[in-house]
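Students often ask why we bother encoding 3D structure as a string. The short answer is that it lets us treat folding as translation between two languages. Here is a chain of 150 residues written in the first language.
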Amino acid sequence: MNSLMTQFQDFFSTAVLGLLVGLVFHFYHLVIRMAGVGRFVLYFLDFLIWLVLIVLVFLALLLINHGEVRVYVLVALVLGGLGYYLYLSRLTAKPLKFGASSLVSGCRFLGRLLLRPVIELKNRISGFLSGLLLRASQGQGDEDDEDKPN
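And here it is in the second language, the structure alphabet:
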């Protein structure tokens, strides 16, 4: 059986893990709000963040207490997240907003930068096809004139 000191260390480490999970959720919430994503993209991103955090928390619990999940571990995880939202979220709001804004702006810039060649190619193909259709329709009009008797 673990000593009492080891259990206190596990409790404290798990509470810190809860604080970090709260920080990640706060940052994720700000990014989603600033990005203004659609409903179905939001569902996908919510699923993805939960999946990633579950795996990370599981791995962290393996490191902290060798995967032993006890009631006090779950209580510490919840208390850490709750403590973040009650006491630390106001302190971290401005830096997280700045980080979220920077991330959203950077992703939008990269998206525009990566999509620019695709849009240019689409415009060129569209212009080429429009020119072909215009020539084909003008050519058919001339043929119709030739078929008419004078």
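Translate back mentally: Residues 4-147 form one domain. Keep this in mind for the problem set.
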